[in-house]
Amino acid sequence: MTRTLLALVIVTPFALAVLALPAHAGDAASQKYVWMPPVDVTQALNIKVETKATEALLKKADEQCFDADCHEKVATCRKQLATCVIVPSKASVHEQEMENN
User: How many domains does the chain have?
Assistant: First the structure.
């Protein structure tokens, strides 16, 4: 009984640490900055799925923006380039599907 209790006391913290590692890794992955551009910008960039932002893609997006809010979001995405992803809106995806059919 004492051996079992001692083994549980020693093994339990390690088991909890191992179980917590994947959850912590998932939290780090969810720390991304998500930008959903307007429909016309999304279509100009030809984005259909979640796309990792690059400087070239953001430059093209900045050229397509027509209002200050869009330019501001591009600038924010540039500041967080390492974690920024561009996600098309549902309306944009739907419109592209309708054009392709």
Answer: 2
Amino acid at 39: V
Q: pLDDT below 70 — which residues of the chain?
A: 1-30, 94-98, 100
pTM of the full structure: 0.62
Question: Pairing relation of β-strands 51-52 and 33-35?
Answer: unpaired
What is the sign of the dihedral through the CA atoms of 35, 99, 60 and 66? negative
Residue 45 near residue 60, CB atoms below 8 Å: yes
What would you report as the CA-atom Rg of the chain, rounded to the nearest whole angstrom?
22
Write down the pLDDT at residue 90: 78
Looking at the chain, how many residues does it have? 101
Q: Which residues of 48-72 are buried (b: 16+ CB within 10 A; e: fewer)?
A: eeebebeeebbeebbebbeeeebee
Do 49 and 95 belong to one domain? yes
Domain shared by 10 and 46, yes or no: no
